[in-house]
Structures are given as structure tokens and as C-alpha cells.
Amino acid sequence: MKVVILAAGEGTRMRPLTASKPKVMLPIANKPMMEHTINAAMDAGIKEFLIVTGYRENSIMEYFKDGNHLGISVEYVHQEEQLGTANAIGYAKDYVKGHFIVLNGDMLVSTEHIKHLISRTEDAIISVKEVEDPSQFGVIENKEERVTRIIEKPKNPATNLANAGIYLFDDVIFEYIDKTGKSKRGEYEITDSLQMMIDDGCSVGYEILTSDWIDIGRPWDMLDANKVLLENIDDTHEGTVEPYATLHGNVKVGKNTIVRNGAYIIGPVVIGENCDIGPNCFIRSSTAIGNDVHIGNAVEVKNSIIMDGTKIGHLSYLGDSVIGTACNFGAGTKVANLRHDNKNVKSMVKGELVDTGRRKLGVIMGDDVHTGINTSINIGTVMEPGSSTMPGEVVMYKRKTN
């Protein structure tokens, strides 16, 4: 059986992190999020993959290549224009035969669930998640083991079974994709194709997700996924840990990394290769530090993702944040991450201020951002790639300056 992974989109709600790479290549626990999806499928016994690419596809193809180094086969097909899920899946028509699985490259799904899908034999299977507020999702109606109707964001949902966007299809689906028209959103929706299958009497079932499933739609979702994935890391030290550094719990240290005396690290934490950590810094749990990162003296980092090549200067604090590649924190840079009034933090997405649903959230920082010494960054701030601050500046939202 083959897995088709949808990975053509930029992920505009993830900006500014996707300015230089597609969403599926953003790192979680120091691996591109799509690699975790591929690993879950591999552990389920799948060896053949087709990746539907588009935005900045070279970064995907250069990383995964033909899959031979992973012991799998990887093919690619280019989606000319992102026109909806049915359109994307339709590009797989000449690459699959019989049953195949469709996964999104920006979702974390368990090996267990993929095994359940493989065992099914219907014309189509929709993965669903039991949710508290189904009115915010596409919802299925069912009769016994069959799906009878799919409704997008119903006002009065008949069930709490939300479509999770993970499918098993027989290749008959392509007949219905060819007949699918544009939705009100101007896209070709796979749920419309599925409804036609149901109306024609095809066997369309569902499989309930009972294990971890995270849809990574906005930057702060990366922190939730990072926390889940770090729970399973090994306690391995391939670099140098000096005698008076203290490591509690599972801490993975990469090759040629040095953890200097006085560093205090509470796992789970992953640190990449060629990093310089400390001395006398405090790294708290659920933190992922990429390759070639420097964490200076008297720095505290908590529950954050720090991408390759970034330097956090001495006397700085960083919490509940996502930091892009090649950023530089001037000494004394502080990131606020907590609302003391117990209200949720708001942050900017596609030019609009939205409720993140989180009481704690620091900064979402694009690539190559430089802060002056003693910069203060407010909760939920988004900093555009290439932007910079003056010494002592207080930042709410920062665009690139010419």
C-alpha cells in the first residue's frame, strides 16, 4: 500500500515561519514535521510514498530525496495551483492502484491509527475525532458503521465526530474527483467527492482516532506537537557534557555539542549538533534546540523551539516561543510569555489579531531577526523575517525595516 502525503501549500497561517520553507518542513523535536508523519507510516509497515509538492518544493525534495537512505521509496508530483483537497489528491491518479492512504504533511498521526486504516477494505474510510465543539469542523453523520452525510461546520451537529483529514481510499475515488465541482470557497473539496460516493451507494466508513492527533495550523500548535514528541526521546549524549553541568530526565545531546559547566537542563529536551550551551544557563522541559545554536551565560529557555543557527545572548529569557533560523538575541533580551489577568494571549495571523487559546505564549520570530541589547518583547508578538530592534526597545509587532 502507498501513502500519499499532501505537502504543496505554504501554510499562510504559519507566517512568518514559512517565508523560507514550506510548512511541512518546519522543525518539531528537531525534525521536519512531515518526517514524523513518514516515520509513523514506516512503523506501520508502509514503504512507498508519493508526496504532492508545490510551494518551495526543492527543500522537501533535497531533504527526502528518493527515500533510499530511509529504506523507503519516495516519488513526487507537482501540484500546479492549490485548488483544494480533491484537486491535490487527484494528482496521485497515475501513481496509485487499489487502496491507498492520504495524510497531510502538517498533521501528527500515530502508527496505531495508520495500522487500523490499513486493515479496512471499504471504498473509503474517513478518520474522525470526537470533539467537544463539532460546529467548528466538518462533521460526519453515521448509521452503524457507515457514513451517511458530511456537513461542514453545522449549526446543530448530529454527532461529535469531526473529520480529521486522514483517509483510506480505493482508486475509485478518482472517478468522483473528476466529477467534483468547486465549492462556495472556490475549491475542489474531497468531502464533496466523498458525498457523491455515499449518494451512489459506495461503502464509506469511518475510523475513530483514539491516539495522539495534532493538526498544526498555527505557529503555537508547534509547541503542543513538540511537547508530545519530546516525551519519547532517548537520553543520549553524543557531544560533551562537562562535569558540573546538571541534566535531569531525558536530554538528547547531538554530536560536537558542548554543554558547559553550570548548565542546568530539565528534560525532555533535545539539543542538536554543533551547539554551545552555557555556562550557567537554565533550559527547561519541552524545549527543542536545533543545530549550530548558542545559548549564553545566565540565559533561561522554557518550552520553546529554537531553529538552526540562532544565538541567544547572555542574560536573556525566552519562554513558550518559536524562533526561526539565524536569529540573534542581544544581551538582556527578555520575552514576556504570561498574561497576569488569566486571559488568553492574542497573536497576529494573516494581519488579524486572534485568540490563541493559550494563557502563555511568547514570540513567533521569523528567520534572521536581530534584537538590540535589553530588548523587551511582549506576549504574542510576531516578528517578521529580517527585522531588528534598537537597544532597549519594547516590541509589540515588528515588520522588516529597509
Automatic annotation (TrEMBL):
Residues 265-383 form the Mannose-1-phosphate guanyltransferase C-terminal domain. SUPFAM superfamilies: Nucleotide-diphospho-sugar transferases, Trimeric LpxA-like enzymes. Pathway: Nucleotide-sugar biosynthesis; UDP-N-acetyl-alpha-D-glucosamine biosynthesis; UDP-N-acetyl-alpha-D-glucosamine from N-acetyl-alpha-D-glucosamine 1-phosphate: step 1/1; Nucleotide-sugar biosynthesis; UDP-N-acetyl-alpha-D-glucosamine biosynthesis; N-acetyl-alpha-D-glucosamine 1-phosphate from alpha-D-glucosamine 6-phosphate (route II): step 2/2. The keyword Isomerase does not apply. GO terms for molecular function: glucosamine-1-phosphate N-acetyltransferase activity; UDP-N-acetylglucosamine diphosphorylase activity. Residues 2-230 form the Nucleotidyl transferase domain. Its EC number is 2.3.1.157, 2.7.7.23. Keywords: Acyltransferase, Multifunctional enzyme, Nucleotidyltransferase, Transferase. It catalyses: alpha-D-glucosamine 1-phosphate + acetyl-CoA = N-acetyl-alpha-D-glucosamine 1-phosphate + CoA + H(+); N-acetyl-alpha-D-glucosamine 1-phosphate + UTP + H(+) = UDP-N-acetyl-alpha-D-glucosamine + diphosphate. It comes from the Archaea. The keyword Acyltransferase applies. PANTHER family: N-ACETYLMURAMATE ALPHA-1-PHOSPHATE URIDYLYLTRANSFERASE, NUCLEOTIDYL TRANSFERASE. In the C-terminal section; belongs to the transferase hexapeptide repeat family. NCBIfam families: Arch_glmU. This is Bifunctional protein GlmU. It comes from Methanolobus mangrovi.
